[in-house]
Every structure is written in C-alpha cells, then in structure tokens.
Amino acid sequence: MKKLLIIVCCAIFLMGFQQDHAHFNSLERVKTGNSTGYKVEVYISDAGNFNKGPYQILKLDENGQNPTVFHRQQLAWPQDILFLEDKGIVLISNLSKGYIGRYNAKTGKFIDHFATRIKGPTRIKIGPDNLLYVLQWAGDGLVKRYKLDGTFVDDFTKVGVPQSIGLDWDKAGNLYVSSFGRGKKGLIRKFDASGKDLGLLISEHPHLKGPTNIRFDTMGHLIVNDYAAGTLRRFSAQGKFIKNLATEMGKLEGIGMLKNGQFLVGSKNSVKLFDKNGLFIKDFYTSKKLLNANAVFVRYVAK
Predict the structure, then answer these.
(1) What CATH number is associated with residue 289?
(2) Number of structural domains the chain divides into
(3) Does 65 reside within a domain?
C-alpha cells in the first residue's frame, strides 16, 4: 500500500513538473508568437530626433536580438511600417515629406513613392474593405483611402481629426481615430463603416492626455497607448475608462501584434513586451542606437 501511495505521489509530482516545464518552454518558444513553418522578424521605426533624424528601420529576430539596419537612406521622420507580402514590398509612411514610400521587402531598398501629397502621413493600416487607410498629422485631418497599388480612392471621412496618429475598427466595422492633442487634450473620434462621423468617444478625459496607437482587444475593449502619460490604458467600447494596464512606461508608440496574443510597444530607446492582458513582461529590446521607437511591425515569414 505504501509503495502504491509513493508511486501515485511521484506520478502526480511528475505530471505537475511536466506541465510547468512545458508551460515554461512554450512561453520561451512563443516569446513573439512563433509557430512551426514561420520565421519571426520584428521591425522598428526609429524617429531619431523627430524632425531632424537620424532615421532608420531596424530589424530584430524573434528574441529581440541580432539587430540590423533594414533601411536608413530614403526616410523623412518615418511613422509606420506595413509589409505587403504578396507584392514583395513594404510601405513606410514619412511624415515630414508627406509621402508613403515603397521599399523592397527583402532588401529594404527604396523603390518609389506609393502615395504623395499627404499632410504628414502617420498610421497606415488595411481596413475591412481591403483598402489602405492613411491618417494625417496636419492639414484637414481627414482619413484617406488607397488601393494597395497606390491608387487614391477617396477621403473616407468628412470630419477631420487633428494630429491623428492611431486607428482601429470594432467588430461592427466602426472606425476609431485618435488625436494626440498636443499631448494635453487627446481625444478619440468614432466613425461608422461608411465614414460618417459618430462624434467623440473620448475627449477632455482625466485618463487621456496624448494618445498615439489604439487597438481593440479580443474582449472588445479599447487599448490606448497614452504617449504623453507614459501609460497603457484600457477603455470600454463606449469610452468608459476601465483601468491602467501599465504605468511609467515612457513614451509609448507603435504596436506589434503577435500570434499568441502578446504584443510589443515602442518606448523611446526600447521595445516593451506585454502579455495578452496588457501586463508588462519585460523589455524586449533596448539600445542606445535606438533613439525613438514609434512603430513596431511583427512579420511572419514562411521558412
């Protein structure tokens, strides 16, 4: 009986150890959401000294190591990065020269201008209609749409959002756009699926100073990078403040989503890793050679 009890206890201990060990290994294996058959690459836009540079796009491996310069010549205050894998190109928005550049996805070499005459392009993102949505920092602040070959489609919105620098869609297809508001009076405006203005979701809020990127999580909550406050925040879809997820994080800008639900956020000379619930895990990458990380793109490349 004692032998049987010892065997059972050992088996339970071994099972628990194996589960913990497997969980630890899985965390190590999916630090950036890696999966079989894919190579993970992380790209960072470095805004340098903002309107003065030096500018660069850095490339890291899945562990935040082996940094290399992907591109540094044809940049003018870069803002966002978007790979179009089927076309073999990467798009980079350049605020101070008013264009979105088209670059070779393998070499980083500049090809040509994807779109021009944009009043300070910031975020670029493919929408539910498979068109490219482009935000403007200056000018009329309208959201522009382009086909993925660079053909201009229209001004999707009729109401401008000044210093717009973050966008995402809810499950109903409504578009949300954030305004930095000079770091003091940030706001988030809502539009329906046709571009009609639905008013301000959040404005003059004590828990919103100067937002950059925004995104909806799987629970339908709005996650906000509050750059000016150095805080990652969570709001309801109705604009009600829920909680601060992480504070004293520095200047938060850029979001790179991982397949396992974790995500990366730029913060000055570092990129920070958060779990799927928005809890800070660790600094994924830090370097004196990185001045101001303002965009993060996670790329899954077939092996």
Answers:
(1) 2.120.10.30
(2) 1
(3) yes
Q: Rounded to whole angstroms, what are the CA distances from 91 to 43, 78, 123, 151?
A: 12, 10, 11, 14
Q: Quickly tell me which residue has 């894919």 as its tokens.
A: 38
- β-bridge pairing 293-302 and 89-94: unpaired
Amino acid code (one letter) for 41: E
Tell me which amino acid residue 40 is.
V
Residue with tokens 């779109």: 115
Return d(Cα 219, Cα 170) in angstroms, integer: 10
Whole-angstrom distance, CA of residue 273 vs CA of residue 45 = 16
CB 122 within 8 A of CB 146: no
- Tell me how far apart the alpha carbons of residues 55 and 44 are, in angstroms, rounded to a whole number: 11
pLDDT digits (tens, 9 = 90+) for 131-181: 999 999 999 999 999 999 999 999 999 999 999 999 999 999 999 999 999
Q: Which residue range forms the structural domain that includes residue 120?
A: 37-302
